Amino acid sequence: MTWLPEVVSCLRHRCFTPRSTAAQPAKMPSPRVTRAANTSNPNVSGRFEFMSLLTNKTSVSDQTLTRHRTSDSPVHRKDSNSSSSQQQLPEEDCMKLNPSFLGIALKSLLAVDLWLSKKMGVCAREGSSWGSARPMMKLVEISGHGIPWIAGTIYCLYRSDSSAGREVILNLLFALLLDIILVGIVKGIVKRRRPTQNRMDMFATFSVDKYSFPSGHATRAAMVSRFMLNHLVLAVPVRILVMLWAIVVSLSRVMLGRHNVTDVLFGFFMGHMQYSLVEYFWLSPNTLPALFKY
Ligand SMILES: CC(C)=CCC/C(C)=C/COP(=O)(O)O
Fold first, then answer.
1. Is the CB of 198 under 6 A from ligand 1?
2. DSSP character at residue 211
3. Which of 206, 208, 248 is the pocket-test mutation for ligand 1 (most atoms within 8 Å of CB)?
4. If DSSP codes are grouped into helix, strand and coil, which group holds residue 124?
5. Interface confidence (ipTM) of the complex
6. pLDDT tens for each residue of 49-81
7. What is the number of alpha carbons within 13 Å of residue 276 lying toward its C-beta?
8. Among 276, 249, 251, which residue's Cα sits nearest to residue 261?
9. The dihedral formed by the CA atoms of 164, 268, 137 and 114, expressed in degrees to the nearest 10
10. Measuring from atom 7 of ligand 1, which residue has the nearest CA?
C-alpha cells in the first residue's frame, strides 16, 4: 500500500496541472480556482467578475478571475499568437458586466428610464407625434422658469405693505434662490447629459443647465406649490389649480424631451425637501431682525 500516495499524487498532477505551462500562455481558471482566488481578494468578495473585452487595466489578481478576456477565450487563443495586436472591437460591442444585484437593478432602471423618456418625449420636435403642442408646452416651461418667479417675487416684496405679507414673500425669495443654488450644485456633481431628443432652445440658462439631473423646473414647481398651499389662503379650486400646475410643469419637461423621467421624479422629491428646509430656516423678524427693519 505504500504506492497509494504516489498514485493519488500522480492523478492529481495529471488532472489539475497542465502538461506544459509554457505551451499554454494563458490558462483558463476553473470555477474552483476562481472561487478560491475570489475569497482571497477583498474587492470581489466571492463573485465572478466579467471584465470588459477591451480593458487592459486588470491587475494580476484580476487576470486570474477574468474568464472572458480575448486572449483567454478558447475561441481567440489561436489568433492571439498570429497577431500581437489585439483585435480592437468598437466600444458598443463590448460589455462590462458586473452581476451584482445593485448593478443590475440600476442598469435596468436606467434602461427603462431612457426608453420611457424617449416614448414620452412627444413634443421634443415640431415633427414629433404631439409636435403641434410644443409652443404651448414652452409656455408651461416659462411659467416654471426661475426668472419670472424671482422677478415676480421681488416686485411683490416691493409692493407689499403688511409685515406679515413681507415675511412670507421674503421667504419665498429665499426659497427660490436656495433652489437655484442647490439644483446647480447637484447638476454640477452628477453631470448627467440631457436626453438626445432634447433641443437646447431654452431661454436664460446657466452653464450647469446643460445637465439634466435633477430638473430645476420640477424642483421649483414642487417647492413653490407646497409653499403656496401652506402659506397663502386660497380657495379650493385655486388649490387644485396650483397642484395641477406643478404636475403639468413636471410632465412637460419629459414631453419636451428636456429631461428623463428620473430627473423629474428626483426633482419633484428634491423640491419637497427644499420646502422643508425653508420651513426649518424660516426667516422672521425674530430670527433676522435686520431684514425686517425698513
Ligand atoms: C436663469 C435662472 C434664474 C434660472 C434658470 C432656470 C432654468 C433654465 C432651469 C433649468 O431647468 P431644467 O433643469 O428643468 O431644464
1. no
2. B
3. 206
4. coil
5. 0.95
6. 333 333 344 443 444 434 333 333 333 433 444
7. 6
8. 251
9. 170
10. 205
Question: One-letter amino acid identity for 66?
Answer: T
Helices 236-255 and 216-231: crossing angle in degrees, nearest 10, is 180
The length of the chain in residues reads 294
Indicate if ligand 1 lies below 6 Å from the C-beta of 146. yes
**pLDDT digit string, tens, across residues 17-34:** 343 333 344 444 444 444
φ/ψ (deg, to 5) at 193: -70, 150
Place of cell 453631470: 191
d(CA 52, CA 68): 8
Q: Which residue's alpha carbon is nearest to atom 10 within ligand 1?
A: 216
Q: Which of 156, 155, 150, 196 is nearest to 173 (CA)?
A: 150
Cell for 220?
A: 421649483
Give the pTM. 0.67
